Structure formats: C-alpha cells, structure tokens
Amino acid sequence: MCGIVGYVGAKEKKEILLEGLSELEYRGYDSAGIAVIENDKLTSFKAVGKLKNLQEKTKNYTSSGFGVSIGHTRWATHGKPTELNAHPHLGKYSFVVHNGIIENYQEIKKGLQKNGVNFLSQTDTETIVHLFEQNYPKEQKAFEAFEDTIKTLEGAYAVLLISEVAPDTIFFAKSGSPLLIGFDNEEIYFASSDTPIIGKAKEVYYLEDGEYGYVKEGKVILFDKGGEKSFQTKALTLDKISAQKDGYRFFMEKEIYEQSRVMSETMMGRLKDECIDFEEIDEAFLEGIENIKICACGTSYHSALASSYLFERLAKIPCSVEIASEFRYKEPLLSKNTLFIVISQSGETADTLEALKMAKKGGLKTLAICNVDNSSIVRTSDRSILTRAGIEKGVASTKAFATQTMVLWMLSLFIGRIKGTTDAKIAKSEKDAMLHIPKALLIPDGLHEKIHRLSKRYLHGHGFFYIGRDIFYPLALEGALKLKEISYLHAEGYPAGEMKHGPIALADSKLFTIALMPRSLHYEKIKSNVEELSARDSTILAISPCAFDLADDFILTQHDSHPMIEFFEMMIITQLLALEISVRLGNDVDMPRNLAKSVTVE
Fold first, then answer.
1. Fewer CB in 10 Å around end: N or C, the chain?
2. Domain match, 166 and 269 both
3. Domain presence at residue 599
4. CB neighbours of 76 closer than 8 A, spacing ≥ 6?
C-alpha cells in the first residue's frame, strides 16, 4: 500500500527519504518519489517501478543544510502507475503526498478546472495541492490556506504538504489513514508507520483522526476541531518487525483486520455511480467471447470457484474453473471464443503460469487477476487487473482471497454490461451490496474475543467439516484450507448437500462441523443438512444471522441483506477461527511448516 515519509532538519534529506521509503517496500508499491525544499527552492524526483529506479535518478543529487522534505511510495488506485501519477504532486509552487482516498475529489477537481487549473495526473491527490494554491492568494497565510484545504476534503487521508511560500514548514493532516511524527532533538520525522523512523527518532506521536498542523523551527503545532492542543510523545520501539505488524501479534492477524480498508482500494475508480468500469479492459477485447475458463491454485482456486456462480448468475455467461496443476496435463480442448482468466497472488505461481502459456499458445484471449504488477503472469497475459491488496506477508492468504473475489464479482457485472446480459435492476442491487462490503469486513467489538474463547473446544478430535451451499461451498473450502495451513489439523470443505452421499459416515461427537448458514441463500436447505449431522452427534459450530438451537457453538452474524455481504462477513470469521486455533496450538501463524508464500515450482 502507499507509504509516506517526511523530514525537517539539516541532515542529508535524500538519504533519509530513500532509506525511509525502503523500509516501506514490504507494503507494496508501483512508483515512488521525493521532494525537497532547500534554500527556498523546490526539487523533486519520481520514478515508476522499484525504488532502485528512484535511487538511480537521484544518484547525482545531494542536499545539505536545513530543509524540508517529503517522500512517497504509491500503489495505484486512481490512474495507472506512471510518473505523472506518482507522488509527490506539484502545483505551481507546492508539493503534496497523500495516502487514502478523497471521496469528493471529482467535485473539487471540476471547480478547480473551471478556475483554469490544469491537471497533469489522473489522481485524487493532485486536487489537494491545487486547492491549497487556490486558497493561498485569498488568505495570504500558508497555514490558513492549508486549514481551509483540509476542511474541504472528504474521505480518508494522511497528507504532507510543502510550499515555497513557507519554505521552512511541513503542513500535515490525518483522517482515517495512519500518520505519525517522530522526534529527535530539533529534528522532526513523519511516516505512515513506525519502520521508516526506527533508529532515527527516539520519541513518537501517533496522530488521531481530525488532527492537523505544521512543523516549523523544530516545533510541532497541533490542532483539532477544538483549536490548538497539546500532546504527549512516547518512546519509539526499536523492533522493526514488530513495527511492521502495527501492534498485531502476527502479520496474518494484521492482514485480516486490513481487509475493510483494502477492499475500498480494490473498488476505487472501478465502482462508479453509473456502472462498473475497468480501465484495464477495453470493450473490443471482449468481442466474440462466449464463455470463460478460470485457472488457479489453492486459495485463488477457491475465489475462482466462487466467481463461477457469479459469472453465470449475473453475466449469464458459461464459466468453468480448472485447478492449474491438473489443467496442464489433461490435454484440454481450448476454444478461441473463451476468455482465459488466471488468478495468482504473487503472479509467479508456476502451475498457473504454465497454464497461461498453454492458453496463449492456443490463441485464447487471456486476463490475469493478480496482486503484483510486473510479475511473470501479469507480463504474459494480454490484460491484467491488479487486486491492490498490498503486500501479504502471512503465508496463509487472507486479504488476497478477499480482493480476488471482489475483482471477479465486479468483473461479472462489467462483462454482463458489455454483453448486455445483466439486468439493470440486478446490477444496481449488486453495486449497492458492493458498497456495503467494507463495513461487513469490520470486526465488531467482542467478536475476536468470542472466537478466542470458543476455539479451545476445537483443539482435539478427528477432523473438521466446513459445509456450505452455492457460493458458500467455495468459502467452506477456503475456511478448511486456512485451518489446515496453520493449525495442521485435518479439515475438509464440502457442499452441504453432499454430506448424505458418504461423508456423514464420519459424523460423531469428535467430528467438528463448521456450518455456514446464510439467511439470504438456501437457508432452509442447509439447516436440514446441519440437522442431519447433529442427529449423528457431530459437534456443530453454526455461523449465521439466524439462531440455531442445535448448535453447540453459535456465532451471530450481523448482515443478511445480500449473499455476498454474508459471504465476506463469514469469511472473516473463518479466518479468525483458524488463527485462534493455531495460536492455542502454539504454531507459527505467519510461517506454517512446509509452505511458501510464492510457489514457483511444480
């Protein structure tokens, strides 16, 4: 995800910024840039791709003496990864870096354009610097102009702004996106997480939402809606790995909690008022496409399987799903009217990449759903859509699965619109549901603690059945996989209706059944299936918005208006359950045995 660094002081600013940005590489990015004001003069550098490209651009640049400076790593949301879209963004005499999403940027942009402002980028961030420079002539005071700017913004943001009209000052603001200030004598540091300033600053202050202010002459002046305020710093941790975890015990836990925010970025610029739109795909690319084949492995296979229901239900287009490692050897029949979709978190999954090459050789149009730009699968595919999940350090995938599923859900509506097969009323209902997904992914107070308490029941026994119907069957597969990966307990996912066709023979008190029971989809059917297991004395954990008397344990869900909203809420619960069972068993949650994050061999 995007990262911010800033520095006010007399040290070599380029090196401080580049070192800070390198500590944020674990978050993922597609471009980077820095800006410095020294001797009242603005200097900036930007580069697409890895940080080494920016380092190469700045190799002949040095800074000395007092100055202010800001830097940024960008993960594209508005606009493609280009130098023009990279941060910092420039006005006539000011630079800004920004994390988050300015929800009213289109409105602000139109107003600025009417006043003659020309925009260079496709980003929401550029509106901030132009708005500041529109306000400054009216105020004639830089801080008041910045204050007016911040009051206009709606959405989530962490902002650093520097300007030649106040060459000794950094202006800052925080709302919904992390930002902190580090202190070492009269030197001041900014960052979006602890890691860039560990070893540099000794004390830290974590900004609260709604706080803003400026740094000048080694002092931080802080405000909120009540006016100027005092604040207390705290000692900065010296452990960079712990800092990257943002206070969570494990990267996997952090990534589970990140999903609400990440999902907003996955949808940003794609979920529009009038339609779903992917700038990565032109309508001509889909001409002649009559069916879809999806190829993936592991968790990505489960997101593909879930989406196959959506492509056929919403877009009315036949969709088949293949396990990549099997597809390669089945001598598949490939038709050129097929859109061949591959899914991979890393973009380097060997089986999936080889399947993609087979499709390319067969003359099929290919599309990659991936989290890593410039990866092998992205480079090989005709088109690609990035999930924007950010770096996922936990080996057991969480937010990658969520964002893959969301991209595929949106893609089903996109294709349905292009082909004219999706009913407009249904499309509106689906888009309304999508807008509620970030809220459904928020973890309510008490839920994690409840799952921690009940997890002690599930440490022994001879196995787990995760059961669901329809789209909840792939979710059952994914829930079982998460548990297997990190707890090393045997777990299987099944379609609930298949229990009576053999697996129910295993049912007894030492078989744990995790039942996904959505109200909005086939509730009575799955209720009957769970009752059959209960009658055979299976231990039942029911996850549902409807109370279930036969459950030994019950987790009440909050949403029941749309199947996909229930899907994502239940996904969070299965992830937390796997996490807590693994923790109780004393396992390494982030690095489970025998597994690797990127599977680059057959």
1. C
2. no
3. no
4. 30, 31, 85, 386, 388
Query: 3-state class of 30 per DSSP?
Result: coil
Strands, E assignment, 187-316:
187-191, 203-206, 211-216, 219-224, 227-229, 234-235, 291-296
Residue 331 lies in a domain: yes
Burial annotation 552-583 (CB, 10 A radius, 16+ → b, else e): ebbbebebbebbbbbbbbbbbbbbbbbbbbbb
Note the pLDDT tens digit of each residue in 316-365: 999 999 999 999 888 888 999 999 999 999 888 889 999 999 999 999 99
- The residue segments making up the domain with residue 465 are 447-584
Considering only the C-alpha atoms of the chain, give the largest distance between any 2 of them, rounded to a whole number of Å.
Answer: 80
Are 428 and 470 part of one and the same domain? no
Reported as a pLDDT band with limits 50, 70 and 90, residue 602 is: low
DSSP string spanning 506-537? G-STTEEEEEE--SSSSHHHHHHHHHHHHHTT
**Bridge-based pairing state of the strands 539-544 and 511-516:** parallel
Q: Within this chain, do residues 460 and 313 fall inside the same structural domain, yes or no?
A: no
Same domain, 113 and 218: yes
597 is known as an active-site residue: yes
Q: Are 526 and 467 in contact (CB under 8 A)?
A: yes
429 CB-near residues (< 8 Å, 6+ apart): 562
Q: Vertex 21, ends 19 and 23: CA angle to 5°?
A: 75
Is the same domain home to 365 and 465?
no
339 within 8 A of 365, measured Cβ to Cβ: yes
DSSP letter for each residue of 135-147: HHHHH-SHHHHHH
Domain count, the chain: 3
DSSP tag of 333: -
Q: Same structural domain for residues 430 and 454?
A: no
Tokens read off for 511: 């078989």
Same domain, yes or no, for 427 and 451? no
Burial label for 446, CB within 10 Å (0-12, 13-18, 19+), is exposed
Residue 466 makes CB contacts below 8 A (sequence gap 6+) with 476, 477, 479, 480, 483, 491, 492, 493, 494, 513, 514, 516, 574
CB within 8 Å of 56: residues ≥ 6 apart: 47
Catalytic one among 11, 316, 439, 597?
597
479: CATH: 3.40.50.10490
Q: Could you say which of 2, 297, 319, 370 is catalytic?
A: 2
% of the chain residues with pLDDT over 70 = 96
Q: Which of 323, 301, 294, 354 is nearest to 602 (CA)?
A: 354
Residue 436 confidence (pLDDT) = 95
Same domain, 26 and 173: yes
Clarify whether 57 is annotated catalytic: no
pLDDT at site 601: 47
434, 461, 483 — which closes off a domain? 434
